[in-house]
Amino acid sequence: MVQRRVKQIGLKIVSPNVLDMTLVDLPGITKFPVGDQPSDIEARIRTMIMSYIKEPSCLILAVTPANSDLANSDALQMAGVADPEGNRTIGVITKLDIMDRGTDARNLLQGKVIPLRLGYVGVVNRSQEDIQMNRSIKDALVAEEKFFRSRPVYNGLADSCGIPQLAKKLNQILAQHIKVVLPGLRAHISNNLVTVAKEHASYGEITESKASQGALLLNILSKYCEAFSSMIEGKNKEMSTSELSGGARIHYIFQSIFVRSLEEVDPCEGLTDDDIRTAIQNATGPRSAL
């Protein structure tokens, strides 16, 4: 099976009116493979999503359509695993405009079904027809606000629903989140700088001339050879007490694993004495065999 390599699509948007942020649009969970997709496509997608949302510095937008069962939401389920305290998960309810008649998402938006510490925001996106008809974002936002204002069931929630409200809430939460994680990030960066500075100092002083550079390179290679020899001969300063390493590991492989493997091989398996005798005679040619 030929597996296609997945490439990320990067889009950079510059604006003086918003905070700097990176938005990662992760795929939905694929339950069953389609076409040439691998059989473990669901596990792969879950692993990929978790690699992003497990980072303590990221906010999670758990997007769930209003016309589905919130209790079975993959987004909320994975967010609950990555963020059990709910300190960085925001619920987003979409497709409010295509719910069945007689139903509404008021209880969902108020957090009465699955509570979230940061709450929920309902949005009405452009439909595929709107996109094909080149309906502008501005017109779509006006229609979205009209949707919430014109429906009595959402009228009391209109001030907290809609894409502009989601953007505003996200900016506020992001600013607060940055204040919380910034000290830890600063300490982490400082530790990394100290480590890099020590490594940089171990390479010696900066040299300009070719002769000095050659001498520096020769010195580095000599140190590497010495470290390699020390590891093989068992004279390494950082000697492990939990596993065999270096020359001891090589000795163990040749004296135990390799020898045991040789003993398991029967070199004469499937051959008779006549076969061996004939092979010896053929190998000696016109000369006499011992």
TrEMBL record:
Transmembrane segments: none
One term under GO cellular component: microtubule
GO molecular function: GTP binding; GTPase activity; microtubule binding
UniProt entry tagged with the keyword Ribonucleoprotein: no
Keyword Thylakoid: no
UniProt keyword list: GTP-binding, Nucleotide-binding
Any GO BP: mitochondrial fission
Residues covered by the Dynamin-type G domain: 1-183
PROSITE patterns for the chain: G_DYNAMIN_2
InterPro entries to which the protein is assigned, alphabetical: Dynamin, Dynamin_GTPase, Dynamin_N, Dynamin_stalk, G_DYNAMIN_dom, P-loop_NTPase
Pfam family, one: Dynamin_M
Protein name: Dynamin-type G domain-containing protein
SMART domains: DYNc
Organism in which the protein naturally occurs: Vicia faba
